[in-house]
Amino acid sequence: MEISTLSPDGRTRARIVALTAVTAFAPIVWGTTYFVTTEMLPAGHPLFAGLVRALPAGLVAVTLGMALPGGSALPRGSWWWKSAVLGILNIGLFFPMLFLAAERLPGGVAATFGAITPVVVALLAVSVLGERLSVRRLVWGAGGVVGVGLVVLGPNAGLDVVGVIAGLGGAGSMALGIALTKRWGRPEGVGPVASAGWQLTAGGLFLLPVTFIVEGAPPAVDGRAALGYLWLGLVGGLVAYVLWFRGIARLPVTSVAFLGPLAPLVAAGIGVGVLGETLTVVQVVGLVLALAAVLAGQLPSRARRTALPSASSDDAALEAVR
Questions:
Q1: What are the residue ranges spanned by the domains of the chain?
Q2: In this structure, what are the phi and psi dihedrals at residue 161, rounded to the nearest 5 degrees?
Q3: Beta strands in 66-155 (DSSP E)
Q4: Other beta carbons less than 10 A from residue 138's beta carbon
């Protein structure tokens, strides 16, 4: 059935599903990062990979934002510091924490810490966004953590204090960045491309000195590595973050956060389909549980279900469920 033939309520639901699917593209692409980093990029330069993902994509997005009709070139007023804060939380601080956790912890442990983001977002939504605490989302968030853990944790998984702090810090940084992105929204007349560009550029500028202090000079780049960096920057950076921030602006913040565990699940799937790895029964159970948590996180609360808008226009209806 075409969307145009549906009732206003049906059109609203269809548009929410479509927007959620488009937003999910971001964590799905991010799930390829581990494969690209290990199979295509020079070893020992994870921060440089993060820098390449963020700064060029940010500059391109700002340029595109200027070229689009009605686009805004640069932030104005308070959006200078707001963009800096969001860029550091979502990108500049998150990337080093992510890579430090991956370096100090087994990959499965680091991925499990990343999967707690929906739980942290659900808690922050109370204080930052003034939402009611959702026990259902907390339960499903915990289920997602358990599911991801069953998929990616190995029998020799160990803990390192610095790695654990970095893993928790990265999850907290991203969760706070998501919550503040939702709270502050975008300034009037600024589209998702320019807004994402501001954050990517701010995060990239934050990463620039950190990268060269920690890793030194950039690595030598051959053709294979160039393709990997192009994928991380163009698709994993520019396209993914524009869609991700657009989803945060238009969907319930906890629903977007619940899409995050798709990244480690995609990474595990690539391991099976491309690298020839196999899944145990326990891992399959974890995969089902994690996917169930992702889907459950998209279900509206009882209040939103009983008050689904019947606006005359699709845009007004979608606006009502933001």
A1: 3-320
A2: -60, -50
A3: none
A4: 15
